[in-house]
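In the design runs reported in the main text, the only information available to the sequence generator was the tokenized backbone. The following block is the verbatim input for one such run; it is reproduced so that readers can re-run the procedure and compare outputs position by position.
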């Protein structure tokens, strides 16, 4: 083992390159789709993919999910950077060994990077997936992108994982 590797591990790190590679792959997929959208769909145009279900469009979102913090780029960039650094730290921490947790952190971190790239270099996030479902709770649903899906799926999975872990701990303590 090299001195560098020993030094890294002494700080509580156990580099896990597979997850870092997938972070880069998912962020690249996100950016590739956004480039295709920006080159092939005019801003605010709508293309029906499946009528009454899903459309492709090209909108610029200066906020976060559901346009919260619209125009809040100065707030969202540092917040996203902190979340990305935390994700990479947790992935590479010796204590993070559960594969499910590592994949969840990979998704969240990749999504954060994809949208951060947009905020820094485009001034806004490119969104393009428009659910056009005639259900009351989905009317005017936010237009979103691949990075958003990574963050939301990862976030929901993380919450479910934490709940399961808490329930297991409570059951173990009762025994």
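Verbatim output:
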């Amino acid at each position: 083992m090299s001195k560098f590797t020993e030094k890294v591990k002494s700080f509580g790190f156990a580099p896990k390159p597979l997850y870092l590679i997938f972070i880069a792959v998912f962020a690249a997929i996100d950016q590739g789709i956004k480039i295709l959208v920006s080159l092939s769909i005019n801003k605010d145009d709508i293309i029906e993919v499946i009528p009454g279900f899903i459309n492709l469009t090209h909108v610029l979102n200066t906020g976060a999910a559901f346009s919260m913090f619209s125009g809040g780029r100065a707030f969202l960039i540092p917040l996203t950077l902190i979340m990305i650094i935390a994700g990479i730290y947790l992935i590479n921490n010796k204590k993070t060994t559960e594969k499910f947790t590592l994949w969840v952190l990979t998704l969240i971190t990749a999504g954060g990077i994809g949208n951060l790239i947009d905020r820094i270099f485009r001034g806004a996030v490119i969104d393009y997936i428009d659910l056009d479902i005639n259900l009351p709770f989905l009317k005017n649903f936010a237009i979103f992108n691949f990075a958003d899906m990574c963050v939301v799926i990862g976030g929901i999975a993380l919450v479910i994982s934490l709940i399961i872990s808490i329930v297991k701990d409570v059951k173990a303590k009762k025994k």
